[in-house]
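This part of the workshop introduces the protein records we will be handling. To make this concrete, we reproduce a full record directly below:
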Amino acid sequence: MNLEMISFYKNDLPDEFLRAMKTSVAIDTETMGLMPHRDRLCLAQFSLGDGNAHLVQFFDYSKAKNVKLLLADAKILKIFHYARFDMMMLYKYLGVMTKNVYCTKIASKLSRTYAQKHSLLDLCQEVLGVEISKEQTCTDWGSENLTGEQKEYAANDVLYLHQLKEKLDIFLKREGRFALAISCFNFLETRIQLDLMAGENYDIFAHGV
């Protein structure tokens, strides 16, 4: 992709981004690892579904005023892929629980039951016919100076989420599982609180003593 389509900011989104907001935004995060108590939030990516990506690199979470306002705004739909993790990291480090959420991974697992793979790469390839690279998955997101390859990778994680939502909504409605998907999305806030309370393996619904 053209790096000119990627905007890069330190600590917060500009006021103009919020003014351009309509009804939905795609969001993703990059972190130092997968353990929220150990691995810090490094980057958050945003897209309005217009082919442009807006990347925010965090050095001081207290300065992320506009990001926090956006996450808390229940009028704006936030589209994630694997919202459970991204919402958890945003809540852990920015102190705001994301409101009004759609998760393409959950939507895929509910509607594409014929498939064994539900990663963003697999969804983009099958549902949209788009090839994206995941070569920068294991990279140092804590670096002060991110490479062009890292920025492109991060941008790809949000550029196609609006399109995927449109396709997955069709699948969910066709299979009669749209309402169930909404219930799952609404439950994410509780699931995240449980994750942070005792870790991902803590399951109060599990059978046992």
Observations:
- The beta strands are 6-10, 24-31, 41-47, 53-57, 77-80, 101-103.
